[in-house]
Amino acid sequence: MKEAKSQQNIPKLSGNARTVLEKRYLRRDKEGKILEAPEDMFRRVAKAIAAADRNFDASADIESDAEKFYQMMINFEFLPNSPTLMNAGRELGQLSACFVLPVGDSMDEIFDAVKYTALIHKSGGGTGFSFSRLRPANDVVMSTTGISSGPISFMRVFDIATETIKQGGTRRGANMGILRVDHPDIMDFIMCKADQKQLNNFNISVGLTEAFMKAVEKDEDYNIVNPRNGEVAGTLNASKVFHRIVKQAWINGEPGIIFLDRLNNDNPTPHVGEIESTNPCGEQPLLPYESCNLGSINLGKMVEKGEIRWKRLKEVVKSAVLFLDNVIEVNSYPLPQIDEITKTNRKIGLGVMGWADMLIFLGIPYNAPEAIALGEKVMSFINDEGHAASRELAAKRGAFPNFIGSVFDKKGTGIIRNATVTTIAPTGTISIIANASSGVEPLFAVSFVRQVMDNNILVDVNPHFERIAKEQGFYSVELMQRIAEHGTVQDIAEVPEEIRKIFVTAHDITPEVHIEMQAAFQKYTDNAVSKTVNFPNDASIEDVEKVFRLAYKMDCKGVTIYRDGSRDMQVLSTGKKEEVAPPPIDEKKLIKRERPKALKGWTYQMQTGCGPLYVTVNEDKSGLFELFTTMGKAGGCAASQCEAIGRMVSLAWRSGVQARQVVKQLLGISCHAQSGFGDNKVLSCADAVAKAIQTHLKLSGVDADFDQKSFDRGACPECGGVVEHEGGCSVCRVCGYSECQ
């Protein structure tokens, strides 16, 4: 009877949430037919996780915990990380989001790590690496009397392996690559993603040390050390290296920085090993082979009638800690080494989402001092209650096996079940399911416009803003569209001032406030905090440097920044001819250029999955004029579609559309028949046409060397929705696409 009653309590899903679940989470048969409803998924997960209770008590009432977990999830008070939702109670059974693998300084160790990476990505996880153990480029290799190719060359091997593994179509492979700032190859590492075609499956961060930061403050030199023998290999000026990091981050957001010594100062099990790296988004420091299971409490659900529901928050924290500890038990780990160290340290990462929603419900602006203070209070409460719940579990189930010799053991604070309890992770897709704001981020936008497949324009409005606008009588479709075009309500006079103060977005907030909020949550978080510091496009390099220094001063464990548009445009190199933008087009006066009798042109052979494609680009005196295609195989659908592409490109050029805009639209379009590998990979005939145009432009002296993944970060490559930058990752709030998960 209890089961039947609870089945009637089904989750209330937004349209976007239902889209994400149906596309990425719900079980399907071999033909792709969906086999479960959202409530079935939550029931499946709840039962699978509650079953772990029997590992400790054969007579445990697992139905009671299953019901508690189910209610917590369908009410969107708590959700676990994506792999748990996808795989709990299913054959794969891999429930962890993040792993760290060691990379040793030998061929055997390096390619073992590549193999392990493939297995983890196949199972749906992301991986972090430190490449700091690898000897530098051009260093001696004693076994062959040759020279080393260095860490960056091996990073490319990992990148290609990641590109190859598709993870069953549900999650993309993602990596974090870290190099210590005292490694001899550090300057090359800082620049390794300056070419945005390279290492697209990696986030990169420089591991900064306390010694380095002190040298920066004093403008002194510091030692670089060869990891092969531990000997000093030279010196670099700390200020110059720091400025190079800052400048490159300003250019395209990478590298980020991680304060390695701080990670190890908070390492609860230093007797087990040293922390070298983190997961792909940087919030989860882990020992080699360690994994962590994450979940987030929806703070927006913890407010009622303008007051925080502290009692319910405590209950959810306790249940969430039990849930995550159970995940460790029922998880199917991709490697035995991961199984062993995960179970002997039992790290969990309980975090939050809906922080911006909570502030809105309480009427507190995100950028107000009260918000910073409340952030500390809320996270302190969650951390304290989380540790209390872990200690309560330890009394029943025992401490984590590596407890003896741990920080907890030395402090004499009593046994605890989990070596770490709290983490602030990015909540990209699970926050869409919960219809909540992401992590501890501010709102990305109050309203935005998106184009759907039938070319209709839809206006998506923050539900809280829409509700208030209707209640207060200033709602209109026209106003919502104008807000979407402005990207903010701060300059919209129709919106009352008190509402404008509450609905601040990521770009209404100063970078300093972003860091202050990150520091507030970091103060009471065991692991680290995933947070993106947003900058306007016109921010200076000095602005970014100021934030990096502030993060160090305020005891953050790392920083990820994103300057608006920095990955949406190609930075032109000096000495290359820029494409001149045509004057604004008045459609009423638009005149198509007439074709002269004779034109000069060039033909490029492109290898596609449908055979060779010959692309001819013709120019008149004004520039690019027309494009023809010829398929190596006569006739067929591919040939007709290529002819259509050529006609449309020709019409666009003759009407004044820039070549770069044509490339932007065609580049990255994918089909089932692909050709080539690496930089020579052609995804489709449309992609081949774009690459042929690129080649032509480069030969003509125009720098058009960009690819779709790095160029068009403003729109989702799957649905065209708005992409948010979160914790070093890009996430679509419409369909759930993510670069990192």
What does this structure look like?
The chain has 741 residues and is α/β, with parallel strands linked by helices. 39% of the residues lie in helices and 17% in strands. Strands 1, 2, 3, 6, 7, 10, 13, 16, 19 and 20 form a ten-stranded mixed β-sheet that branches. The chain is globular and about 90 Å long. The two termini are 39 Å apart. Mean pLDDT is 88; it is low at 1-7, 568-590 and 706-713.
Reconstruct the topology from this structure.
Elements: H1 2-7, H2 15-25, H3 38-50, H4 62-74, E1 78-80, H5 82-87, E2 98-101, H6 107-123, E3 126-130, E4 140-141, E5 146-147, H7 151-164, E6 175-180, H8 186-190, E7 202-208, H9 210-218, E8 221-226, E9 231-237, H10 238-252, E10 256-259, H11 260-265, E11 277-278, E12 285-286, E13 291-298, E14 303-304, E15 307-308, H12 310-330, H13 336-345, E16 348-353, H14 355-362, H15 369-397, H16 407-411, H17 428-433, E17 447-451, E18 457-461, H18 463-472, H19 477-486, H20 497-502, H21 511-522, E19 532-535, H22 541-553, E20 558-563, E21 600-608, E22 611-620, E23 623-631, H23 636-654, H24 659-666, H25 685-699, H26 708-711, E24 723-726, E25 729-732
Parallel strand pairs: 2-3, 3-6, 6-7, 7-10, 13-16, 19-20
Antiparallel strand pairs: 1-13, 2-13, 4-5, 8-9, 10-20, 11-12, 14-15, 17-18, 21-22, 22-23, 24-25
Helix pairs in contact: 3-4, 6-7, 9-10, 10-22, 12-15, 15-21, 21-22, 24-25
